[in-house]
Amino acid sequence: MTVMTTQATPAAGVSPAQRVRALQESAYRIRMHALDMGETQGQGYIGQALGVADVLAVVYQDVLNHRPQEPKWPGRDRFLLSIGHYAIALYAALAEAGVLDSGELTTYGSDDSRLPMSGMASYTPGMEISGGSLGHGLGVATGMGLGLRHQGSTAHVYNLLSDGELDEGSTWEAALACAHHGLDNVTAIVDVNALQADGPTKGVLRTEPVTAKWEAFGWHAVRVDGNDVEALVAAFDGLREHRGSPSVVICDTRIGCGVPMLEKREKAHFMRVEEHEWQQARDQLTERHLQRSGSAPATTHGEGPVR
User: Fold this and answer.
1) What is the CA angle 254-14-222, rounded to 5?
2) For residues 268 and 131, what is the distance between their CA atoms, to the nearest angstrom?
3) pLDDT in the model for residue 12
4) End-to-end CA separation in angstroms for the chain
5) What is the DSSP string of the chain?
6) pLDDT the model gives residue 274
7) Contact 62, 233 (CB under 8 A)
8) Per-position b or e across 166-203, b if 16+ CB within 10 A of its CB
9) Which of 2, 22, 41, 226 is the most exposed place for a label (fewest CB within 10 A)?
10) Cβ neighbours of residue 299 under 8 Å, at least 6 residues apart?
11) Consecutive 10-residue runs of the chain (307 residues): their mean pLDDT?
């Protein structure tokens, strides 16, 4: 039996423009999946899912070494979702990557579903850790990185965390430990969308200058526009050969990115979307995608989720 493996290196014979274009199409489909799932509940963390879609497309399609049909393959790179409420975004990315059947996304948040509203490792294939209380992901990533190194594994650990999690002392304790042990098999990815449950991040607890702080803790830090696929590709390519310390990719993203009407929502952390607005959101997403790409998307969901 042949097992499909997604390699952590760019495909041979693919031009840089083709590579970026394919990833932009993937991000579009992730956003569309997220909107379809959001409609099943009528509300949720849809703004974050739209904002982080480009990051997840690049990570799952271009960075991670994994086998979609074998989520527990021992040699896989680990992707840890620190931010449990971003599960809607990860489910969309797992479906796009082939780990989940896209048809299962219609069960999101339903009774007996494998796709609960907050990430649960015991329920969902490809979900490495359970989420809920924030600030624990990087500590788990540090432990995994140490364990993999002791095993002689070449697998890498990626931890997606939020800028709000930088309020947590446990995050910085883990950052110190990770650097102390020289875990260059760990990469943190920080989604800086400038918003958390209690309001704008800078008003809750100012964390800037973020890049300088990570560097002071002994990390190799890169900051990029997290909604620019080309910039993300360049950032992760630049980390492929880095050795000697853990790395962090700080991604500035926009809540609701790709859907203008949702980008402008005042209350955007947990977003309520009216029934008639979901199709408008899909239409705006497709229109924005066409404007940027200049061609029709590979897959559209113009009729909304299948019931």
Assistant:
1) 40
2) 20
3) 63
4) 35
5) -PPP-B-SSPPTT--HHHHHHHHHHHHHHHHHHHHHHHHHHTEESHHHHHHHHHHHHHIIIII--B-TT-TT-TTPPEEEE--GGGHHHHHHHHHHHTSS-GGGGGGTT-TT-S--SS--TTTSTT--S--SSSS-HHHHHHHHHHHHHHHT----EEEEEEGGGGG-HHHHHHHHHHHHTT-TTEEEEEEE-SEETTEEHHHH----SHHHHHHHTT-EEEEEETT-HHHHHHHHHHHTT--SS-EEEEEE--TTTT-HHHHT-SS-SSEE--TTHHHHHHHHHHHHHHHHHSS--S---TT----
6) 86
7) yes
8) bbbeebbebbebbbeeebbbbbbbbbbbbbbeeeebee
9) 2
10) 25, 29, 32
11) 47 84 97 93 85 98 96 96 93 97 93 90 93 88 98 97 93 98 98 81 87 98 98 97 97 95 79 88 94 63 37
Name the token pair of 176: 């110190």
* Dist CA 89 CA 38 (whole Å): 10
- Compute CA 2 distance to the chain's CA centroid, rounded to the nearest angstrom: 28
pTM, to two decimals? 0.90
Q: Which residue has the tokens 């690049």?
A: 58
**pLDDT number for residue 257:** 95
How many residues are present in the chain? 307
